[in-house]
Amino acid sequence: MNRAQYSAIAIGGVIFGFGLALSGAAQPEVILSFLRLEDLGLVLVIGGALVVTLVTYQLAPRLSSKPLLGGVFEEAKRVAVSHWHILGAVVFGVGWGLSGICPGTAFAAVGSGNVPVIAGLVGIFLGAYFYGMLRTRGLPGLE
Asked: Is 141 part of a structural domain of the chain?
């Protein structure tokens, strides 16, 4: 990757983190009230992100023959859903529901001064580490 690509990634990350913090999505209390269907304000945030993503993915390849910072546009590869995908989704969902923390919002929360969220980030990294250990042992379906 070149400097322009790294800069674009950094700028995108800052904008994403700012948006999460501004919307309240970086506060576990807001997430938990959303999951309990008490405060549906995050539906607008999620819906807005979905619309922007959908429009960008549909229009960008039509407006330009190649990405602005190099590379090529590629079709997404279809992946068969395995029991590992279902298990991972359940573990992620249970963790998110119990703590109100997911990886993107956790980093934004720490960046906005919510230091107790670091405990959740430690759990996220431990989960990724254990997944890596299982994967290197060659369990079927974890390729």
From this structure: no
**50 φ, ψ (degrees, to nearest 5):** -65, -45
Residue with tokens 């994967």: 135
**Nearest by Cα to 102 from 125, 116, 120:** 120
Q: pLDDT digits over 100-135, tens only?
A: 888 888 888 888 888 888 888 898 899 889 888 887
* Residues ≥6 apart with Cβ < 8 Å to 95: 101, 123, 127
Q: Is 11 inside any structural domain?
A: yes
Q: Judge whether 13 lies within some domain.
A: yes
Answer yes or no: is 107 within a domain.
yes
Structural domain boundaries, residue 132: 3-136
Q: Is 54 helix (H, G, I), strand (E, B) or coil?
A: helix
Q: What's the token pair of residue 1?
A: 């990757």
Tokens 């919002």 identify what position? 105
What's the pLDDT tens digit per position in 1-35? 889 999 999 999 889 888 888 888 888 888 889 88
Considering only CA atoms, give the Rg of the chain. 18
Q: Is 26 helix (H, G, I), strand (E, B) or coil?
A: coil
| Residue at token pair 């922007």 | 52
- Find the mean pLDDT for residues 39-50: 90
